[in-house]
């Protein structure tokens, strides 16, 4: 425990700031719980709250609207620009200056949700996702009340500085209040979110994601300390990410061969390389459905998907796409000598 905790406790008491006083007390209780003095931790919590409020460190936070999810430990390659922004988030949160609300916007499959998991891992925080299925209610006014309730739960978390809350696809409940096509009920919900974001406990990190940034209420955007744009992938970034994905997946598919040069050439033959989420699924499916007796069958399947082909390859097309005789052999199973004969003896070694 640091001197700062004691000073903060006195400060919040003198200011009659009950919420921050409770949170600081919980932080102190957490410290004693970590060093093994569970009895003292429970006693501190009993002084500032109901006994049921205290949750030992090895237990999850129980909530109707929040669900704890696993933190991703797999590597997540990102373009340099986005990676720098994520580093900025980590630095800002660690400085504890009240910068704690972030919005990740971008097309589906750009890695927004997976990046949130990485942020939780880097900050060493538990990750909770808001259950919109529990939050949204058909009764008039109930959803707005549920929004207030979930923020109340967030603000009363036992260990706020150990928590990260994810509003995944927040556009499901937050729409533009001035849009004539918007339902009046959802306008009330958005207004409720605006008020609650203003009161959010500064020790909690909140990240929201959206695929519909252009439809967002401008006032809602201003409530976030930073907006991170995930629509910043160049072809080179996607090729590098695809190589990383394949290297990771090949550890699970032991019978598949590795030929990164051919793999990269297949990607370069795509008119448009998909975003990381779709790209990962494309590579995974190609590996999963490949012939285990042919170590490079997944590359053939991947190229067929890229070119939207259902039948066998035309050797002349493969030649036109820049594949060598050896690569054509791997993709078709036809020997190099036969490929060369069918291509009229031309050599593409």
UniProtKB/TrEMBL annotation:
InterPro entries: 26S_Proteasome_ATPase, AAA+_ATPase, ATPase_AAA_core, P-loop_NTPase. Gene3D superfamilies: P-loop containing nucleotide triphosphate hydrolases (3.40.50.300). The keyword Nucleotide-binding applies. SUPFAM superfamilies: P-loop containing nucleoside triphosphate hydrolases. Pfam families: AAA. Keywords: ATP-binding, Nucleotide-binding. It comes from the Bacteria. It comes from Enterococcus camelliae. Residues 98-234 form the AAA+ ATPase domain. Belongs to the AAA ATPase family. This is AAA family ATPase.
């Amino acid at each position: 425990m640091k001197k700062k905790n004691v000073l903060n406790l006195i400060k919040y008491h003198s200011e009659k700031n009950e919420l921050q006083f409770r949170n600081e007390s919980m932080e102190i209780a957490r410290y004693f719980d970590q060093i093994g003095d569970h009895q003292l931790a429970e006693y501190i919590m009993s002084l500032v709250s109901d006994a049921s409020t205290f949750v030992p460190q090895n237990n999850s936070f129980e909530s109707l609207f929040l669900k704890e999810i696993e933190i991703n430990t797999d590597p997540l390659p990102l373009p340099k620009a986005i990676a720098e922004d994520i580093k900025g988030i980590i630095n800002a949160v660690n400085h504890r200056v009240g910068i704690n609300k972030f919005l990740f916007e971008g097309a589906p499959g750009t890695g927004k949700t997976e990046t949130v998991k990485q942020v939780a891992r880097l900050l060493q925080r538990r990750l909770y996702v808001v259950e919109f299925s529990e939050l949204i209610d058909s009764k008039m006014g109930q959803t707005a009340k549920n929004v207030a309730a979930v923020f109340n739960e967030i603000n009363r978390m036992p260990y706020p500085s150990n928590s990260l809350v994810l509003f995944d696809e927040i556009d499901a409940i937050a729409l533009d209040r001035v849009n004539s096509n918007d339902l009046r009920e959802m306008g009330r919900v958005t207004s409720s979110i605006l008020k609650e974001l203003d009161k959010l406990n500064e020790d909690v990190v909140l990240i929201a994601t959206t695929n519909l940034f252009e439809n967002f209420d401008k006032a809602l955007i201003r409530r976030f300390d930073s907006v991170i744009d995930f629509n910043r992938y160049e072809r080179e970034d996607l090729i590098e990410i695809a190589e990383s994905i394949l290297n990771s997946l090949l550890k699970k598919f032991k019978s598949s061969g590795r030929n990164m040069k051919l793999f990269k050439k297949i990607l370069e033959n795509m008119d448009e390389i998909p975003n990381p989420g779709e790209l990962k699924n494309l590579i995974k499916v190609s590996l999963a459905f490949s012939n285990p007796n042919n170590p490079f069958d997944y590359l053939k399947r991947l190229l067929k998907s890229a070119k939207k082909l259902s039948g066998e390859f035309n050797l002349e097309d493969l030649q036109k796409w820049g594949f060598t005789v050896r690569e054509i052999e791997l993709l078709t199973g036809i020997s190099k000598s036969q490929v060369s004969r069918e291509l009229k003896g031309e050599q593409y070694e």
